[in-house]
Structure formats: C-alpha cells, structure tokens
Design goal:
The protein is of the alpha/beta class. The chain is built from 14 helices and 12 strands. GO terms for molecular function: metallocarboxypeptidase activity; zinc ion binding.
C-alpha cells in the first residue's frame, strides 16, 4: 500500500513560500531575466521532494526516455536572425511576399493579418539587403520587432532549467491562488507537465482520469486528462457530451501548453466552489491535451527554441518534421503544395504525421467504442489574439452553422475583453492563412488544408470548433514572457466558461459566472452582472 507516502506527498506539495501576486508590467517591452521564488525552507523542500519521489519515482522521465539537458548554445543559433513586421495591405504587396516565401526558406512566417505579416529572417546581415531589393518601395522599411533574439529566447527559460521533479513546480492550490502557484511562474518541460498531471489525478480521483491517446514519432506518450463529475444516478459508460481542448501542436508555442494546464487546474480546483464550473463539469467531460507534439516541444527545450513542426523523418534528410495542423485528413493539401523543408509541410499523405493520426484514431474510437459525443473543440495556439472558426482550407465554402459560430466566437472575445481588457478578433480560419486573394487566385503563405478544427468540425461533428491564437500581437511573438502565463490563462478560462454556458443553452449568459482576478488591470471595472453587459453588445 502506498497510501501513506501519497498522503505525505500531497500534504507537502503545498508551497511553503509566500504567494507572490502578479501585476501587469508598466510597459510591454522585453525584459531580460525571469522571476524566481526564494528558497523558502530547504528542509521542508527536501521532505516534499523526497515524498513525491517515493510515490512517483525519482526524477520522473516521460515514458522512460532520457531527457538531455538544454544545449547552452540553444539561443545563439539565432544570433544573426531578426523578426520583422512588413506592412502588407494590398493585393500586390502580399503576392510579392508570398512568392518570396516560396523560393526562400530563410523567411519564416510567424503570423499573418490583414494589415501586416511578421516573419523571422535568417542571417539578416546577409539576406536583408537581398530581401529589400525584391520588395516594392512601400515595404522597404519593415519594423524590427525583435532585434536581439538570443536574449529574447533565454528570457522565456527558467533561470535554472531542471529536468527532474521539484516541489516548486508541482504545487496544487485553490483556483483563486493561481497567481501565487509556482507551477505557473515559469514554462515547464514535458516531464514536469506529465508528472503534474499525474499528481492532479492522484489528488482528485473522482473528478479526473489521466490517459495516453497514443505515442509520438519518437515514442513519447501524448498525455490527456479527462475532467468531469459523474452523478450517482448516471450509468457507467453512458453517453457523455465532451469538449476537447488541445495545445502544443507547434513546439515553439509554449504559452498554448501553459494555458491548457492552467485551464485544467482551474476547472478541477474550482469544482464545487464556482457555480458555472460546477454546472459545466456536471454536464460535460472536458478532455485536456496540453502537448500534442511532445517531440517538437521537447526539442524546443533541448536544441531550438523556435522549432515549429514535429520531429518525424521525411524524405528529405536535412528537413525533418511535419506541421500537425496541416496533417489531418479533411481537405488535406488543399491550397498547400509545400515541401518537407517548409514550416507548413503536412506530410506526403493525409495523417502521415504520427501525432495527428494518433489523435484522430483515438477520437474516432471514443465516439464508436465509448459513446462519446464531441460537441466542442478548442485548439490553442499563438500568437496574434484571434478566434478562428472553420473552414481553414478555403474561404469559398461556408460552414452550415456559420451564424452560430460567429455568435459564439464574438461572445468568447467579449468574455476575454471583460476579463482582462485584451482584444481578440474573430474571423474565419481561412482568413488567417490567405496571403492574397482575387477572383482568379487564392494563394497562401501558409496552406489551409488538413487543419485540426476542420477535421473535428466536419468528420466528428464538433460543430463548435475554434482555433484560438493567444497573446500577444507581436511585441514578443512566440517568445512571450512567463509573467503572461497566469493572465493569459485567466482570460481563456473565462472564455471557456462562456463556451460551456453557451453549450448548456444559456447563450453564454450566467450571472456571476466569473470574477476578475485580483490585481489584473482593465480599462474599467465591469458591472456586477458581467454577462448582462456582454449581452447588451451582441
């Protein structure tokens, strides 16, 4: 029996340090360095770590794989690169930029909007003059978003990278103490996320169930945590409406993984305390998959912080990896003829990417063998603060429930704005990939076929499927500082509550269903009935 070690572990995993509160920086320019908790009481910390090791095993490693230390030169590989913002508003400007990205792999598109395109330029000293010669006069003065990439990269890492278990990483506290929870002070490695999910399952066995939906190309488990409350009169194995929340499809988008972990923790610890959360978990299961691309995610900690794709071998030896969000079977390769060296390469055939295939197989099996009905799908990414709905593969075809998708999408954006003051735009996912469009052409910088939201929407009937691109809008890009983990998590948590309330048939209107996190600034204090204000603007 391991109940005594477990009890000891659980009693000791509560942080002994004083809970620090998060405050929004006065400005949003990049700050080098990261917040670190003090050492507290070394004896208690040692006791906690020892207790956790007794129950979970010493220095837990994901699936028994060796976990190399971070390469000390991980940031210097980008020392000559810069991130640029191009003003690209006209048809001709976007056509020219799209052609350049097809012929030159050194221009890595980070995000696309109607007004601008952000891209990382390889070896700027060598290639910037060449690039500017190819651009029209209106684009010859791009804004430099990030000049010192090595410093920006290192600022996203904890001060001291750890591959083992630590009590400061595994604190589990109540949902109103998120800003003092040390797990969310920093981005966490794959092994720590997996161990923390095991701890949540151990602490809340009646509410959670951890599983693996399959294996990655390199053999790592793709972990999932099912969260939901079963009523006593509910038959075991009965049909259950389910919401799926995923993150980490792209390795470098660390904030997506941290946000999924924040959501699962907040929902679990708020059950029985928050009426909206309690109602939602009584009626639905929510399945959280924080890292769908574990190989790519771990590679960003080991070798290349800005790696996007999986690590699967391709037919081009020096260009490994596939873009999981272009690897699903619905309208695969539509508007996408990218080769293996492209960041948007979705494989040689539908579901060629192992991780996409594993997710689809698991989801199909859930519906056919376990009577699960997926009613909603939220796929978290970064960056640009957008809420995108199907279809991604084309703008020429509209989903049958377009009006409902728009209505809920706008509601999610307003729930976020009332929570934090941040603005998220709402549009079709195809708009986020279109480089330029005319009656004769619909060319893209990034292919739109094979996306996860299109597949879940069309093939599994998850009629409320969204891709949410999280913070920010370009100041940091994929290198969002860790002090944005909690506020990003809070605003998406409020969106998730709105999402659930909408699915419950209340159209997102639930009095008192969320509270503002303390010390989170906003343009103005929201009214007592915040959903009423939201309803007024719909």
């Amino acid at each position: 029996m391991r109940l005594q070690p477990l009890a000891l572990a659980l009693s000791l995993t509560l942080p002994v340090e004083g809970a620090a509160t998060w405050t929004e920086p006065a400005h949003r320019h990049h700050q080098i360095g990261s917040l670190q908790p003090n050492n507290g009481y070394p004896i208690l910390r040692w006791l906690r770590d020892t207790a956790v090791e007794v129950f979970f095993g010493k220095r837990l490693r994901d699936d028994g794989l060796d976990i190399p230390e971070t390469d000390p030169d991980i940031a210097m590989r980008h020392q000559d690169d810069i991130v640029l913002r191009f003003n690209a508003t006209t048809f001709e400007e976007k056509r020219i930029l799209a052609e350049i990205t097809r012929e030159f792999q050194g221009l890595d598109i980070w995000t696309i909007s109607h007004e601008y395109v952000d891209a990382k330029l390889l070896n700027a000293k060598e290639y910037l003059p060449w690039l500017l010669k190819k651009l029209p006069d209106s684009m010859k003065k791009p804004e430099i978003l990030i000049y010192d990439l090595p410093s920006a990269i290192w600022a996203t890492f904890p001060e001291k990278t750890s591959t083992g278990f630590s009590s400061s990483s595994l604190g589990v506290r109540t949902s109103r103490e998120g800003m003092g929870n040390l797990f969310f002070k920093d981005y966490q490695r794959l092994s720590v996320v997996a161990s923390w999910m095991r701890l949540l399952e151990a602490m809340f066995p009646s509410l959670t169930e951890m599983t693996s939906i399959g294996k990655s190309f390199e053999g790592r488990d793709i972990h999932a945590l099912r969260v939901g409350a079963r009523n006593e009169d509910e038959e075991e194995g009965s049909s259950r409406k389910t919401i799926l929340v995923t993150g980490g499809l792209h390795g470098r988008e660390w904030i997506s993984t941290s946000t999924v972990t924040y959501l699962m923790w907040s929902m679990i610890t708020a059950y029985g305390k928050d009426s909206m959360v309690t109602k939602l978990l009584d009626k639905f299961d929510i399945i959280f998959i924080p890292i769908l691309n574990p190989d790519g995610y771990e590679y960003t900690w080991q070798k290349d912080r800005l790696w996007r794709k999986s690590r699967q071998a391709t037919n081009t030896e020096h260009c490994p990896g596939m873009d999981l969000d272009h690897a699903f079977g619905y309208e695969w390769a539509t508007n996408n003829n990218a080769g293996p060296c492209s960041e948007s390469y979705g494989g040689d055939s539908p579901f060629h990417a192992v991780e996409a295939s594993e997710l689809a197989h698991w989801a199909r099996n859930q519906t056919t063998q376990h009577d699960v009905k997926f009613v909603g799908f939220l796929d978290l990414h970064s960056y640009s603060q957008q809420i995108l709905f199907p279809y991604s593969y084309t703008c020429a075809t509209q989903p049958p429930n377009l009006e409902n998708l728009m209505e809920l999408g706008v509601g999610l954006a307003k729930a976020i704005r009332l929570s934090s003051g941040e603005t998220y735009t709402v549009t079709s996912a195809c708009e986020g990939a279109v480089a330029y469009r005319s009656k004769e052409d619909n060319s893209r910088m990034e292919g739109g076929g094979g996306s996860a939201i299109d597949w879940f929407y069309h093939e599994l009937g998850a009629k409320y499927s969204y891709q949410i691109k999280l913070r920010d809008t370009g100041s940091y890009g994929f290198l969002l500082p860790a002090d944005h983990i909690v506020p990003t998590g809070e605003e998406v948590l409020n969106a998730l509550k709105y999402f659930g309330d909408f699915l419950l048939g209340n159209n997102g209107i639930e009095k008192g269903s969320f509270e503002r996190p303390e010390n989170t600034p906003s343009p103005q204090s929201p009214p007592a009935d915040q959903w009423r204000d939201l309803r007024r603007h719909r």
